[in-house]
Design brief:
Strand content: 25-35%
Number of domains: 2
CATH class of the largest domain: Alpha Beta
Largest sheet: 6 strands, parallel
Structural class: alpha/beta
CATH topology of the largest domain: Rossmann fold
Helix content: 25-40%
Shape: elongated
Order of helices and strands: EHEHEHEHEHEHEEEEEH
Number of strands: 11
Number of helices: 7
Strand order of the largest sheet: 3-2-1-4-5-6
CATH architecture of the largest domain: 3-Layer(aba) Sandwich
Length: about 220
């Protein structure tokens, strides 16, 4: 996949390494050479010095052939402008913008942009760890409204089925890992001892999950 990353701060740098190590063609844009120098000589992607929402800079970076664009600079305004250009002008299929101010997330989402707010995500994640320590929230979606939770099947669930802990709009069983292999359960899938159950849970339903699991 051809990927352009605008902004080479800590997040942009790490994302660039992850994408490059995954075999993707990566181009990183930043207006500061010192930021681009974060990428060591072993980085096998391209770097472009320039403003990440400048049309000519984006064209030099290959945005016309890009399949994904990530705006990860330290400026919310720069990120949103660059993401809008990538999505609306160059029709890049996958566009994500990092947002520092969580109050602006709703505005950006109304524009049809996928955003990541590290402030909101971090607060939600810490809240989960402090208040629901028995539940292992391995991933959050949106701004933390939905979490993916993993838990080993407690004794009270062994022999019961996925339907017993499914609550429409709040709790869904999305996967079960059994003896190292994952399966997609149906409502009739029966839980066994040592199963690792993965649940998609609405943030407001964490206490309900704990009650269903007997915790």
């Amino acid at each position: 996949m051809n990927v352009i990353i605008m902004g080479c701060g800590r997040v942009g740098e790490q994302l660039a390494r992850l994408m490059a190590d995954g075999g993707h063609a990566v181009t990183v844009i930043d207006y500061a050479q010192a930021a681009l120098d974060r990428l060591d000589p072993g980085f096998n992607g391209r770097t472009i010095l320039g403003v990440g929402f400048d049309r000519n800079v984006l064209i030099r970076a290959g945005i016309e052939q890009a399949e994904a664009f990530a705006a990860t600079s330290s400026s919310d305004n720069a990120n949103i402008v660059a993401a809008q250009i990538a999505r609306r002008i160059f029709r890049v299929p996958r566009v994500v913008a990092r947002v520092y101010n969580p109050r602006q997330v709703e505005v950006y989402q109304r524009l049809g942009l996928v955003t990541i707010s590290s402030t909101t995500w971090g607060a939600e994640r810490i809240h989960e760890l402090l208040t629901h320590s028995d539940l292992d929230a391995v991933m959050s979606f949106g701004s933390g409204e939905v979490s993916l939770v993993a838990i080993e099947a407690p004794p009270r669930l062994v022999g019961r089925i996925a339907k017993d802990i499914t609550v429409a709009g709040e709790i869904s069983v999305v996967a079960v890992v059994r003896e190292g292999k994952a399966l997609l359960p149906t409502l009739g899938t029966e839980f066994r001892a040592r199963d690792v159950i993965h649940l998609a849970v609405l943030a407001t339903a964490m206490e309900r999950v704990e009650a269903l699991l007997g915790q």
